[in-house]
Amino acid sequence: MRSLLAAVALLAALLPGVAPAQTWPAKPVRIVVAYPAGGGIDVMARQLAERLGAAWGQPVVVENKPGANTIVAADSVAKSAPDGYSVLMTTDATFSINPHLYARLPFDTERDFAPVTMLVLLQQLLVANPATPFSDLKGLIAAAKAKPGSINYASYGSGSQPHLAGEMLKHQAGIDLVHVPYKGISLAVPAVIAGEVQLTFAGIATSSAPLKAGRIKALAIGGAQRSPLFPQVPTFAELGYPEVETHAWFGLFMPAGAPREAIARLYQESSKLLQDPEFRQKQLIDRGYEVVGSSPEAFAAYIRKDSESRGRAVKISGAKAE
Prior knowledge:
The chain is an alpha/beta fold. Helix content is 42%, strand content 19%.
């Protein structure tokens, strides 16, 4: 009998189109989001969880664990069993910025995690209060050189993406801008609208409505090419400042040692969602996200390169963990 079963298994493996039964997931999967409920990354996580649950026939639950600049959530997943049932959804802050910002982390970003896929890339716009006397980046730089220290910009903390972008712009353009850190990402654009500060860096989803209403104006945007939503706004690269990186990304990770099957299935099913025409257009492209869906290998390679460039930005900025 054992010989017969072995022969059947071997035959199934050899025949085209016949695959062994999937063994993962056999129980609920949790996606730990490193940010509070209600934000863009949380909304995407819940949409992904709904799609994955339907495809796998197992519940996929979202658990928000904000705190310590994403460290709380990352540490939770790093110390979880490497069985594929704990997934981290976070941003570049965890893997590209924090290792350079903190003297010590409770985990090793390279050793303790298995990258699954980068879902989307986001570029930020440099926006200004409409009352400022400059209308483009060249005018801003000229005004900053004429009166050093007279122009300020908002961020959401030391080492945040806007802070690093602002300090790199200062470094590359040879200007003096004053950094004004706010407590949260949602406060920077309103501060520009109110005239508390003149500038900030903000994502398209945050800045689109006030831009269209004329309550702020856009001077430049990060990335290799212009946004199709704001084609009139030039990139920092085309203006001669390629090292001013404003991007952020959303990605999925599992603990190191997670089963290959789990990583592969999560990557494949996530890619299907990103390629769904209606979801891709309405939930991503129309909101300013650049769809990526990279393979685990490509994602790992990207993180290494991204960490190098962000490490240089942290060093130039002098940022330290608060």
